[in-house]
Amino acid sequence: MRIAAKPIEDLTVGVDALLVAGNDAAFRDFVADLFAASSSMVSVRRALGRATGLSGSEIAMLLAIRRLSPEGNVGIRAIAEHLHVAGPHVTMEIGKLAEAGLVTKRISASDSRAIDIRLTPEGRRRLRQLTPLVRAANDVLFAGMTEVEMAHVHRFLRRIVAGSAKAADAVDTARA
Questions:
Q1: Quick count: other Cβ atoms within 10 Å of Cβ 81?
Q2: Where are the domains of the chain?
Q3: Global confidence as pTM
């Protein structure tokens, strides 16, 4: 069945390459799937949290610390940039992890305004418990995906993340 072209005022995207015969139906389906995928990933993170007694956000922080500093310290800003979240959110979550004895916070030796975060032995132990669960989830989520597909998806997602603030600004400007 061929879908007829829509008038421009009914289209949800104006990029010609994303229209099929002047119609945005496939694009709308794609965006719905993108939101569903994002929501599904949050659900997986929550399941990991239920299995470990940590919140999804705390899991993200621990994984980011391990990724960014396998042997040393990492700062709040680096974690925030890695996770694409606000610094104050990271500060709050790191405070919870410090209270739980999973990380330590110290004033940075190189910048007295910064805090260095380090996993404690208990934090490393909890990550060792978490890793097989993350692997099990990832094996299901990404089964059959090739290295090339992964690289394309990763590049695509980075473009979406990079453009998100501008997209929100465009919405605010259009409303004004």
A1: 14
A2: 27-169
A3: 0.81
Closest CA to 103 of 87, 91, 120, 86: 120
Residues in the chain: 176
Could you read off the pLDDT of 87-109 as tens digits, one per residue?
999 999 999 999 999 999 998 88
Give percent helix, percent strand, percent coil of the chain, each to the nearest 5. Answer: 65, 10, 25
Under DSSP, is residue 116 helix (H, G, I), strand (E, B) or coil? strand
DSSP result, 70-101? SSS-EEHHHHHHHHT--HHHHHHHHHHHHHTT
pLDDT tens digits along 99-150:
999 999 998 888 888 889 999 999 999 999 999 999 999 999 999 999 999 9
CB of 167 within 8 A of CB of 99? no
**CATH fold label, 27-169:** Arc Repressor Mutant, subunit A (1.10.10)
